[in-house]
Design brief:
Blueprint (H helix, E strand, L loop, with lengths): L4 E4 L17 H10 L2 E4 L1 H4 L11 E3 L2 H8 L4 E3 L6 E5 L5 H17 L4 E6 L6 E5 L5 E5 L2 H15 L3 E7 L6 H8 L8 H15 L3 E6 L23 H9 L3 E3 L19 E5 L6 H6 L5 E5 L17 E4 L2 H12 L12
Parallel strand pairs: 1-2, 1-12, 2-3, 5-6, 5-9, 9-10, 12-13, 13-14
Antiparallel strand pairs: 4-11, 7-8
């Protein structure tokens, strides 16, 4: 019998009550991974700044790559170990640059990761932050060509098979938005811009990529929410990105050019997708809704965006919590109709 495979999607930068902070959806991923054979998810779920958790049967797939995978355009090929290249924004000041290089050294020495040499972009990336009318965060890159040139150089110079990029983010962020985030409410103001950077790299390079923001250190915040606290543990968010990329599956971008492997994963093998109930408008979910994949929507995970499944014509099983979603997955994996477990009298 083939492996039971699920996708956990929590969109970036939309203020998700669970998964909208510093790796606070990792407990959800760890639990779901116990009841399915393969769990596919993305950096927003698994990145916890200096904190991370190795989930052996979880696959770390960047958002653009996840969209292409769900559409059936790309496949996923599991790996044991990637050579991870480090791409650093020229706009990062020397002390902060050194902190990131030391974090990479620590991951190499302490965790045994294969991290190649680093490359500094030939111009500052000049990231700017934006907020949409819905309240979701996004951003722009002033020098995207410099980003791409640096990434290509990493691949050519070091043989990097995955790329961790650190861009210097502005210090003049919306103070109210930052305070709300630190108190465990509101939207992560930098998450949307991070997605723009990683999407561009994966679209252009077609290898695993993920972003870690370069931010100036700040004094301790006394009323810090536990959901945001992982970001206050060190000088860089790089460790979780390096760990995730070290085992991120490679993309199969042209099936006919690759010799098929038993472990390759394609969209038609996805059994279930779990998403917040009001965040059903992603490209990945729209693609999966056209397949045999069972969509499970979670009401408790509120978001700033309001895009439910029903108006989009997406058939789903709606549950109240991720705990309830676990029960649905167990029933589906066992070949049992979940409605048979509910008293409908």
């Amino acid at each position: 019998m083939r492996p039971y495979t699920a996708i956990l999607i929590i969109p970036t930068g939309v203020g998700a009550a669970i998964g909208g902070y510093a790796g606070d959806a990792i407990p959800v991923a760890r639990t779901l991974a116990q009841v399915c054979d393969r769990l596919i998810t993305h950096p927003n779920v698994l990145n916890g700044a200096s904190l991370y958790w190795n989930i052996p049967n979880a696959f770390y797939v960047e958002g653009y790559g996840l969209d292409k995978f769900a559409a059936g355009d790309w496949g996923l090929r599991p790996v044991r170990n990637n050579k991870v290249g480090l791409l650093l924004d020229q706009g990062i000041e020397p002390d902060l640059l050194l902190r990131h290089l030391q974090a990479a050294d620590a991951a190499r020495a302490t965790l045994g990761l294969t991290i190649t040499d680093y490359v500094i972009t030939d111009a500052p990336l000049n990231v700017e932050l934006r907020t949409s009318a819905s309240g979701a965060s996004w951003g722009t890159i002033g020098n995207p060509d410099s980003l791409l040139r640096g990434a290509e150089k990493l691949m050519q110079k070091t043989g990097a098979e995955a790329i961790a990029v650190v861009a210097r983010f502005p210090d003049d962020m919306d103070e109210d938005a930052v305070q709300n985030y630190l108190q465990g409410k509101g939207v992560d103001t930098i998450a949307g811009a991070e997605a723009v950077i990683s999407h561009l790299l994966v679209r252009h390079l077609q290898i695993p990529c993920a972003h870690s923001p370069g931010l100036a250190s700040a004094p301790p915040y006394p009323d810090l929410s536990p959901r945001s606290a992982a970001e206050e543990l060190g000088y860089t968010f790089l460790p979780s990105v390096l760990v995730g990329l070290s085992r991120a599956p490679q993309f199969i971008v042209e099936k006919q050019l690759f010799t098929s492997c038993h472990d390759d994963i394609w969209a038609d093998q996805i059994d279930a997708a779990i998403v917040p109930a009001k965040a059903c408008g992603s490209s990945a979910l729209l693609s999966l809704s056209q397949s045999r994949c069972q969509i499970i929507t979670v009401r408790d995970n509120q978001t700033q965006i309001k895009v439910p499944a029903q108006p989009l014509g997406i058939k789903s099983i709606q549950v109240n919590s991720y705990l309830e979603a676990v029960g649905v997955l167990v029933a589906l994996k066992a070949g049992i109709n979940p409605h048979a477990l509910v008293n409908n009298q």
